[in-house]
Amino acid sequence: MSASDSDDQPIEIPDRPIPNILVTGTPGTGKTTTSELIAQVTGLQHVNVGAIVKAKQLHEGYLEEFDTHVLDEDKLIDELEDTMTEGGKIVDFHTCEIFPERWFDLVIVLRADTATLYDRMEKRGYNKRKIEENMECEIMQIVLENAHESYEPEIVVELQSNTVDDMESNVERVKQWLDAYRARHA
């Protein structure tokens, strides 16, 4: 399969025997929990990008107002390149457009109702500014739009993540997708 990047140059997307999956969405949509569950059920390796950014200091500092680190995208991509080439990864991060298209075979955008999302962020102790910013992103479907602009439409899937039942259903859907992917690449 081939696609194009922002300069309309063809990009060859590898046909890996073991796929890479991106789980993305607004903070609080359940990315990490869902990714961990998918890893447990499928045997794929969970890559928590936020934890890597902090542990390896792949940032340019800290923004107090938004209670977040300023990501150094180049350092992050360099750090993950070899890992992603292997395949078999579930990448968990709140943004998607920074990653090369060739890395992923499936992009899952988790969504949550605003009331559910607000409660989750409040329980995490997010400051008011961070909650407002993230709520606006979810309402405006920023992550979903970025995924559609950054990846081929057939690999982008939007899933609701409001309840434990939703998460379990999402994990089962990914497992079924992975089983079909493995069968096609056997």
Automatic annotation (TrEMBL):
Molecular function terms, GO-annotated: AMP kinase activity; ATP binding; ATP hydrolysis activity
UniProt record, GO biological process: ribosomal small subunit biogenesis; rRNA processing
Region (NMPbind): 48-71
Region annotation (Disordered) ranges: 1-29
Annotated region (LID), positions in chain: 123-133
Subcellular location: Cytoplasm; Nucleus
EC number assigned by the record: 2.7.4.3
Pfam family, one: AAA_18
Gene3D superfamilies on file: P-loop containing nucleotide triphosphate hydrolases (3.40.50.300)
Binding-site residues for ATP, renumbered to this chain: 28, 30-33, 124
Organism domain of life: Eukaryota
Thylakoid in keyword set: no
Alphabetical keyword list: ATP-binding, Cytoplasm, Kinase, Nucleotide-binding, Nucleus, Ribosome biogenesis, rRNA processing, Transferase
One Gene Ontology cellular component: nucleus
Reactions it catalyzes: ATP + H2O = ADP + phosphate + H(+); AMP + ATP = 2 ADP
Function: Broad-specificity nucleoside monophosphate (NMP) kinase that catalyzes the reversible transfer of the terminal phosphate group between nucleoside triphosphates and monophosphates. Has also ATPase activity. Involved in the late cytoplasmic maturation steps of the 40S ribosomal particles, specifically 18S rRNA maturation. While NMP activity is not required for ribosome maturation, ATPase activity is. Associates transiently with small ribosomal subunit protein uS11. ATP hydrolysis breaks the interaction with uS11.
Family the entry assigns: Belongs to the adenylate kinase family. AK6 subfamily.
Subunit structure: Interacts with small ribosomal subunit protein uS11. Not a structural component of 43S pre-ribosomes, but transiently interacts with them by binding to uS11.
HAMAP family, per database record: Adenylate_kinase_AK6
Name of the protein this chain belongs to: Adenylate kinase isoenzyme 6 homolog
